[in-house]
């Protein structure tokens, strides 16, 4: 089946935040250098430290010569122009990193929190894996070119969604239009913020190796979408493709409520139980966004390793409801036992064993 949407991006991933529906996917697990998109992970480490009480917004961080030379005014890179050997409050550093994409701000934070960028990068990678970024490794806090660091579009969308859910009090900075430090005003580098499309984040990046990239979010018509794309050839192409994808994501889908909370989704086979089948359900309601013009491209399947051996306890994790839009795996919902099933009597268990042996034999000789 042809893709429902076409983009010039080499890698892209788009989701609906409320339902988790994957609206578009193109090479989402291809690893690329993070460039400035690494700063999203830098901020996650900072926000987590503030939330846990290890840092406060009024804490001041010292500007070392290394931070000044590598990411400051003399570096020729994105900078907040922090003065060497001065101290900068954490709140200003956060705005410098988010709004101005300040490399000096990142290094100042890394050295202040962990003693060195190397130590801080280890914290970044550890936190990344803990919150579900399975294919990301960080070597420094800024995303400046370095061997061995990489991210994926899927991981970046996971990270963006996490930042929004876990740190609403800090997420607002991603929509901040400008920030002034050291008497120098700089505008937010995210072009989506100036398009009147409901955008409120998040970050742009560029490397010679992978081209122009962006992680974006919109809150529009009662819906929130997160996207990441990379591999664009110019800044204008990046802005155009990102806007086109987010507009399409908002307009081309309609919500479909599939199952109510507590509703039985289906039945799975049970081995050696007092009953031969088991009802399964999700922990809450299940909804998805389906394409308006290709509604028949939706298909779903209960996936589990079975038959499930008895005994089974109500609430036990059983399998997954997987939903596809065309060829894209669009949603995965954990499924749980809706009832308890005890171990069956011996004759029933023997019959089940013979039945499974026969069906297993048939499967082998059909393949």
TrEMBL record:
It catalyses: Preferential cleavage: (Ac)2-L-Lys-D-Ala-|-D-Ala. Also transpeptidation of peptidyl-alanyl moieties that are N-acyl substituents of D-alanine. Belongs to the peptidase S11 family. It comes from Nitratireductor aquimarinus. Its EC number is 3.4.16.4. Gene3D superfamilies: D-Ala-D-Ala carboxypeptidase, C-terminal domain (2.60.410.10), DD-peptidase/beta-lactamase superfamily (3.40.710.10). Pathway: Cell wall biogenesis; peptidoglycan biosynthesis. The keyword Secreted does not apply. This is serine-type D-Ala-D-Ala carboxypeptidase.
